[in-house]
Each structure stands twice: as structure tokens, then as C-alpha cells.
Write a structure and sequence with these properties.
Elements: E1 7-14, E2 20-27, E3 36-42, E4 46-58, E5 67-73, H1 94-107, E6 117-127, H2 135-147, E7 158-165, E8 168-171, H3 175-178, E9 181-192, E10 195-205, H4 209-215, H5 223-251, H6 266-283, H7 289-308, H8 318-340, E11 355-359, E12 367-373, E13 376-385, E14 391-392, E15 401-402, E16 404-409, H9 426-439, E17 452-461, H10 466-480, E18 490-501, E19 504-511, H11 515-520, E20 523-529, E21 534-541, H12 548-572, E22 585-590, H13 596-600, H14 605-614, E23 617-620, E24 625-630, H15 633-647, E25 657-666, E26 669-675, E27 678-683, H16 684-688, E28 708-716, E29 722-726, E30 749-750, H17 760-779, E31 789-793
Parallel strand pairs: 5-6, 16-17, 27-29
Antiparallel strand pairs: 1-2, 2-3, 3-4, 4-6, 7-8, 7-9, 9-10, 10-21, 11-12, 11-31, 12-13, 13-17, 14-15, 18-19, 18-20, 20-21, 22-24, 23-24, 25-26, 25-28, 25-30, 26-27, 28-29
Protein name: Polyribonucleotide nucleotidyltransferase
Enzyme class: transferase
Organism: Calidifontibacter indicus
Length: about 800
């Protein structure tokens, strides 16, 4: 936009041979009544409006900072009309929710501690190049609008997406660029002195990573490579922060005075520390979570009675005593870690809790598993179906369908509490998306495995990183369902505790954090990957930023833990199982594109007839790939034969037998459909044989349209007309038995008896018999294929003996 009232600043992103990108920040023209409003452009094509507003009165009854981030995706931005019934935008899409979380995570710790006024940041997508991703631009816009709003905010915060393409880290890549990328990473941070401190990371390998690394020689995203990417992102973050600072220097409002509500006063903390340090320190050495929390509750109630009761020094200040007691716990836990290198449950800094992995835990489902790490327990359940069941997307993204769908559920009982159940909260959506991204790089292609896959992670017990537990349980369940993963994936959550010692900040990285260690620590760093490379990363911090070398060290520490977990998972299942007898069978047939219309038929008549006759489901792609799904192999093969008969027609041979369908009756016989498009005449003289050779007045007295009849091709005349004969079963005394109407049998060609042993049908029948045997074994005791298998190992206080306590703190923690 243009005008004398507009103030702007620009950041130029130099990607070398990949060109430059320009990010422009403007203010002064739109949304003038908001505390801060910034219009953000990416290459003058993608436009976002970011606004920041604050409530006038503090919510002093809250014990947290009430920050809300909303992303409004306007479909007009991409030239679309919403596909909903009312043709307008409704609830936010998954992409919008994930973008809200990306913005919230680096912004929240940058506000002054104790602020209780409501703050709302709203991002509205106004225009969008379909090849652009708007999420990173939105983070920068949110920081810029907050920076000029007059709120106590320690920004600016810069964010960039960097992708590893042809060995170079490219900033602000397009969707089309990411197809050639082996690793995609969103990094947010702020300038601290001469360095850039990293505040948030969201990263994953791409769907192309496996092929690029294994077959095209691309660089694998190992821990060392990812650390290089974090370092490479710093120069782009610095440029973006400088542009925001330039805008703020011209247009920022004066920082206003807001009342701050500290959790407690110093005198309250001093009193709690003096009265409760000894008992609290002893309680924090109890390994069992329930026992420890019970003892801590007793101490807290005792302190409240002694310090805040009637006539006591802190009378009426119960909330302050509770908050001070929590701070005391935090101090004691952190001191023990930094001083003694010992954690709450007695583990060392690198120790992992006892592990357990088990597959085939539920009957009838297509794949299932339970993964346990200490008191964190996750059940994974896999469901397979036809590709037509994949999720259809109506969003601003160019992605219109999703074959792999990962849902994560976190019920309140997982932490021993009560609460609301129902539609997923933002946190559940975010954790499901993280687990989904961790597994995407190792999933087979559509051509290799033509199934829609739904994976559900049920958090049955939570005591630290259920999201990474979901990655492990999902890998096990997918393998149990027969999904040919390229490699198993495991995940681990890392923590961090820091303190200033002799003027220098010391850091201690923790492997496999508990819920309490997440709550009392400075970082939640989740890393998932295979034995060879990283597939997903998520970092959140409560600090202003973390040095990149500290994160690189945590990555290396996480790799050791991941390899150990993969060994345990391998003990439970080391290769894809055979598919469950309850899972649909999907096969693919390739037909010429110009034959698609013939297979579908007028108004879908032909494809519907094939589905009705065979009991299979058909889905046709634009490239001529026909996916056929059925509950059993013979039905799928019957549908395949029917499709091939239309798309690749072959003249039947004399002597071939068919279970045909009567499609028309006349005075001289009946026309029987052998294959789609291939009908033959069953003369009335042959029809009489169905009633023992007796005279009949009309063909309709014996055969009805739609009736099935076993026939043999007797003759093909020079014009290609087919003459049929009734198949007379040797030794059969009941002529009527030759004309039956089985409900689910399709028009499958039956080979001559002499060739039956070598025919495809015979092979299918053999396969079906094996499947039936497996099913029987699975239902009975001692089934050899689909049965429960376990793997487990303990590391902790006593390595190799499976001991090591478990703890938690707070069910609302974003990392569980």
C-alpha cells in the first residue's frame, strides 16, 4: 500500500543461487484502533495483517498470562470460495491451529512476568501465492505488531523456515522447493548481544527425504546436519529482527505501565523456604509419582495452615504460599540436578526409564501396540481402508488430500484427574501433527501401499512426553498392521536446566524428562528419527533463547537414547506382519486413460455393476490407476478381471466356463453376460436342459434377468457372436442346481478343469485358504502369526534391572 501515513521496513533474504526473498513490514494504514497493526508482505504477493490488542483491566484472578493467538484464513486470499454448506469460513483449519501454536510458543516467554491483562494477537491472511507458506511470515508479523503496541514485550522475535536443498540451507522456500528438500525447519529466535538465541524449533524430514537420500545421493539430515541448519538460520533471523526494530524505532508506541501480579511476595517465599525446605527435599526424592505428589500435598497443606492460618504471619495469603511452595520445589529439583547430577527419581542425566513394547494387544483391529516408558503409556491403533477414505482438504494450502491421518487423544484420566472430554483441543491437534510428521518420511508411497491409513494414539498414562511415546507406539502398530515402513521411528524428549555459576551460565541436558522436569526445567526438546537420521524436532523454551551449541549437544545425547529405544521396539516386532484378516485387500490395476470413461460407464452404470457383482470398492485416479478394495482376495480379483475385460478386452476361448448373469430374455433364448461388454446367447434348447429337457413355454419360466447361470462357451461364429451351452455337472440329479443366484459372486472366468491347478484363480484360492488358517490361529490359543509380542528393557537407577522412578507435574504442561 502507499500513502504518507505509512511507515515501513524491509528485510532482504539472500539465498545465493536460489535468489532473494523480500519481507516488508508496514504500519499506519490499516486497523488503526488496534494497539499494534502491521501489514506483512512476502515478495509483494502474500499479504497478512497482524494485530495486537490488550484488555484494559487485568484478570487478577488468573494465575497465568492470558495470551490468545488466532489465525483467520480467508479463502478469498487464494481466490477460492469455501466448500462448506454455507460457503463461508467456519472453525479454524488444522493448518491455522498449528500456526497459532507456532506463534504462541516464542511470543509467550517474551512478555514481562506477572502480566495479567488479556492480550490477543490476530493474524488475517489477506492474499496468498499458492506456492508460499504463510506461517513463518505470521510469526514475524505477530512479533512486529506486538513490538509497536506499547506492551511490555522483549522482542523483536524473528522466524524463518530453512530447507536443506541440494546441500544448501534455503530460507523461505516455496512449496515446490520443499519437494527437493531433505529437511524442513522453522526456527524462531531473538538477537542477544552478538549472537542469536533460539527460542523455538519445529522441524521434520520431508516425504521426499528417503528417496533423495537413498537413491539420489542427497545429504541425510543427521544430528550434525540439523545443528548446521540451526546455525544457518541465525543470519536470516538477525535480518528479520533488524527490520522489525527499524519499524519500531519509527512507529512504536511508548511502553505503557501495566500492573504486574507476581505469584508471591519475597516474604512469603522466605517463610515457606525456612519452614518447608527439609521436608520438601526429602519428598522430592520419592521415586513413585503418586506417592511423591501425595506427600507434597501434605506438606503444602501443613505450610498453609502454619503460615497463612488465622493469626499467622501470612494470614489470608494461601495462594502466595502455594505458589511459593511450587517455586521451592523448582529450586530444589534444579539444584540437585546441577550439583549432584541426580534427578527426582534417582536417575542420572542420560538415563532412560524402564521401557516396554508390545504388539497385537487388541482383537479385530488392523494393527495395535502399547508402548510404555516409565509411567507414560501409549496405545497405538492402526486402521487401513481404500484410498477414497483419505482426508479431503479445503484450505489455503495446495495440498488437497491426506492419505496418512494421525489423531492423538489425551483424556484427563491419563494424569489421574477429571476433566472435559470430546473434541480435540489445540494441544492434542499439535501433538498429533508432531507424531504424524515424525512418521511421514518412512511411510510407503501410494503406489507401494495403496491404502488410506488412520493412526490413533491413546495416551493412557502421562508422565513425560506422550507425543514421543505416540511415535514409538505408532511405529509398532503400523508394523503390526502390515504397513511396510521404510524404517522404524522412535522419539525421546530432552530437557534442560541452567544456572549462572561464577558469572557463567551452565547447562545440564536431561534425557527422557518427567512431567515435573518439564515443568521445572528450561526446555522441552523432542527428537524423533530412525537409526540413520532425524525425522522430526520440536523445541520450546522458557528462556529468552538457547545457544545453538547447547542444542547441538542435546541432539547428540538424544540420538543415543533413540537408538536404545529402537532396540527395545525391535524385540517386539522387527518387520511388517501379515495384514489382519479383518483389513481390506487393495490391489491396483493400470488402464489406459481413454478407457476410464468405459470403466465408469454412463452415469456410473458399469462401475456400479462391477461393485455390486463382486462386492469390491473401486476408486479411479486421473492417471488411469484403478484401486480395488475388498474384504477378501477372490472378490478383489473378480473386480480386477472385470476391469481388465473392459479396459484390455480379450476374446474368450471356446471351452471356457463362466458364472454369467442373464441380461435379456427372448423367444429363442437368453443373453448371458460373461464379462463386461461380452454377452453370449444361451439358446432355448440349452435352457430346457436346466429343467431336465422338458418342454417350456417361455424362457422367462426358467431364467430371470439378473439370475446367475453356469455356462460354457460352445462356439464363436465368424462375426464374433458367442454361443453358449449349459454346464451339466456329472452325477448331478438336480438340474435346477445349475441355475443359482449367489449373492456375492462376480462374473469371474472359470478355467477348464485341466488348467485349474495353474490358474490365477487357483493361486487366489490357495492364498485365501492360508489367510483362513491364519485367522483361525489368531482367534485361538497359540496363534503363530498374529499374537502378542513383547520387548522391554530397563535403564535407570540400576542399569539393566528396569528400575528407575517416574514423576510428573501438572497435566496442562504442553509436553505432558
Amino acid at each position: 500500500m502507499e500513502g504518507p501515513e505509512i511507515t515501513f521496513a524491509e528485510a532482504t533474504i539472500d539465498n545465493g543461487k536460489f535468489g532473494t526473498r523480500t519481507v516488508r513490514f508496514e504500519t499506519g494504514r490499516l486497523a488503526k484502533q488496534a494497539a499494534g497493526a502491521v501489514l506483512c508482505y512476502l515478495d509483494d504477493e502474500t499479504t497478512l495483517l497482524s494485530t495486537t490488542a490488550a484488555g484494559k483491566q487485568p484478570k487478577d484472578q488468573f494465575d497465568f498470562f492470558p495470551l490468545t493467538v488466532d489465525v483467520e484464513e480467508r479463502m478469498y486470499a487464494a481466490g477460492k470460495i469455501p466448500g462448506s454448506f454455507f460457503r463461508r469460513e467456519g472453525r479454524p483449519s488444522t493448518d491455522a491451529i498449528l500456526t497459532c501454536r507456532l506463534i504462541d510458543r516464542p511470543l509467550r516467554p517474551a512478555f514481562v512476568k506477572g502480566l495479567r491483562n488479556e492480550v490477543q494477537v490476530v493474524i488475517t491472511v489477506l492474499s496468498l501465492n499458492p506456492d508460499h507458506q504463510y506461517d513463518v511470515l505470521a510469526i514475524n508479523g505477530a512479533s512486529a505488531s506486538t513490538q509497536i503496541s506499547g506492551l511490555p514485550f522483549s522482542g523483536p522475535i524473528g522466524a524463518t523456515r530453512v530447507s536443506l536443498i541440494d546441500g544448501q540451507w534455503v530460507a523461505f522456500p516455496n512449496f515446490s522447493d520443499i519437494e527437493r528438500s531433505t529437511f524442513d525447519m522453522v526456527v524462531a529466535g531473538r538477537v542477544v548481544g552478538d549472537d542469536v538465541a533460539i527460542m523455538m524449533v519445529e522441524a521434520e524430514s520431508t516425504e521426499s527425504t528417503w528417496d533423495l537420500v537413498k537413491h539420489q545421493g542427497a545429504q541425510a539430515p543427521t544430528e550434525e546436519v540439523v545443528a548446521q541448519g540451526l546455525e544457518a538460520s541465525k543470519k536470516f533471523i538477525r535480518v528479520l529482527c533488524e527490520a522489525q526494530a527499524e519499524l519500531a524505532s519509527k512507529a512504536a508506541k511508548e511502553v505503557q505501565e501495566f500492573p504486574l501480579f507476581l505469584d508471591y511476595q519475597d516474604d512469603a517465599y522466605t517463610a515457606v523456604e525456612q519452614a518447608g525446605s527439609t521436608d520438601t527435599a526429602a519428598a522430592l526424592q520419592i521415586a513413585d509419582k503418586q506417592e511423591r505428589e501425595g506427600r507434597l500435598d501434605e506438606i503444602k497443606e501443613s505450610l498453609k495452615a502454619d503460615l497463612a492460618g488465622g493469626g499467622r504471619p501470612l494470614e489470608g495469603r494461601d495462594k502466595e504460599v502455594s505458589a511459593a511452595f511450587r517455586s521451592l520445589q523448582k529450586k530444589l529439583v534444579r539444584e540437585r540436578i546441577l550439583r549432584d547430577k541426580v534427578r527426582i527419581d534417582g536417575r542420572g542425566l542420560r538415563d532412560i526409564r524402564a521401557l516396554s513394547a508390545e504388539v497385537e494387544v487388541l482383537p479385530r483391529v488392523h494393527g495395535s501396540a502399547i508402548f510404555e516408558r516409565g509411567e507414560t503409556q501409549i496405545m497405538g491403533v492402526t486402521t487401513l481402508n481404500m484410498l477414497r477414505m483419505e482426508q479431503q482438504l479445503d484450505t489455503l494450502s495446495p495440498v488437497t488430500r491426506k492419505r496418512y491421518m494421525h489423531n492423538y487423544n489425551f483424556p484427563p484420566y491419563s494424569t489421574g484427574e477429571t476433566g472435559r472430554v470430546g473434541s480435540p483441543k489445540r494441544r492434542e491437534i499439535g501433538h498429533g501433527a508432531l507424531a504424524e510428521r515424525a512418521l511421514m518420511p518412512v511411510l510407503p508411497t501410494r503406489e507401494e501401499f495403496p491404502y488410506a491409513i488412520r493412526q490413533v494414539s491413546e495416551a493412557l498414562g502421562s508422565n513425560g512426553s506422550t507425543s514421543m511415546g505416540s511415535v514409538c507406539a505408532s511405529t509398532l502398530a503400523l508394523l503390526n498392521a502390515g504397513v511396510p515402513l521404510r524404517a522404524p521411528v522412535a522419539g525421546i524428549a530432552m530437557g534442560l536446566v541452567s544456572a549462572e555459576v561464577d558469572g557463567e551460565v551452565q547447562y545440564a541436558a536431561l534425557t527422557d524428562i518427567l512431567g515435573a522436569e518439564d515443568a521445572f526445567g528450561d526446555m522441552d526438546f523432542k527428537v524423533a528419527g530412525t537409526k540413520e537420521f532425524v525425522t522430526a524436532i520440536q523445541l520450546d523454551t522458557k528462556l529468552d533463547g538457547i545457544p545453538a551449541d547447547v542444542l547441538a549437544g542435546a541432539l547428540t545425547q538424544a540420538r543415543d537414547a533413540r537408538l536404545h529405544i529402537l532396540d527395545v521396539m525391535n524385540e517386539a516386532i522387527d518387520a511388517p506382519d501379515e495384514m489382519s484378516p479383518y483389513a481390506p485387500r487393495v490391489i491396483a490395476v493400470k488402464i489406459p486413460v481413454d478407457k476410464i470413461g468405459e470403466v465408469i460407464g454412463p452415469k456410473g452404470k458399469m462401475i456400479n455393476q462391477i461393485q455390486e457383482d463382486t462386492g469390491a470398492d473401486l476408486s479411479i485416479e486421473d492417471d488411469g490407476t484403478v484401486y480395488i478394495g475388498a474384504t477378501d482376495g477372490p472378490s478383489a480379483e473378480a473386480a480386477r478381471a472385470a476391469v481388465n475385460a473392459i479396459a484390455n478386452p480379450q476374446m474368450p476361448e471356446v471351452g471356457e466356463r463362466f458364472l454369467g448373469t442373464v441380461v435379456k430374455t427372448t423367444t429363442f433364448g437368453a443373453f448371458v453376460s460373461l464379462l463386461p461388454g461380452k454377452d453370449g446367447l444361451l439358446h432355448i434348447s440349452e435352457v430346457r436342459k436346466l429343467v431336465g429337457g422338458k418342454r417350456i413355454d417361455a424362457v422367462e419360466d426358467v431364467l430371470k434377468i439378473g439370475q446367475k447361470v453356469q455356462v460354457e462357451l460352445k462356439e464363436i461364429d465368424p462375426r464374433g457372436k458367442l454361443s453358449l451351452a449349459v454346464v451339466e455337472e456329472a452325477g448331478s440329479g438336480d438340474a435346477d442346481a445349475k441355475a443359482e443366484a449367489p449373492a456375492a459372486t462376480g462374473p469371474v472366468a472359470e478355467a477348464p478343469a485341466s488348467e485349474a491347478a495353474g490358474s490365477d484363480a487357483a493361486v487366489d484360492a490357495s492364498d485365501d485358504e492360508v489367510l483362513g488358517d491364519n485367522h483361525a490361529d489368531a482367534e485361538g490359543e497359540g496363534g503363530e502369526r498374529r499374537r502378542r509380542r513383547r520387548g522391554g528393557r530397563g535403564r535407570g537407577r540400576k542399569n539393566g534391572e528396569g528400575e528407575g522412578g517416574n514423576a510428573d507435574e501438572g497435566s496442562d504442561s504442553d509436553s505432558e
